Predict the structure.
Amino acid sequence: MTEYCNTVTEFKGLRYEDIMTITNAVILRINKLLAEHNMTKRQLARSGGLSEGTIASIYKQIAKGVSLTTVFAIAQGFGISVAEFLDDELFNSVEID
């Protein structure tokens, strides 16, 4: 059973247009970029130098927030800068976790 409603625009009922936490915004942004790059979370982890467990913990929202170091690694995994990763309307109305 998958926890995605729509891989790109929803996660556990959250939608792009909802006001959300930073973690939720990061999850939706990862989903969008995974679809655009035709990648899996496993491929992202490997190309960004992260463990699969790190990606899983973001999705499970185990930690409060996502560190800048992790966002940097995720961006590298997609072959983009942190600025490009954060350049999405999702981050215009986030609340602190």
User: Anything to note?
Assistant: The radius of gyration is 12 Å.
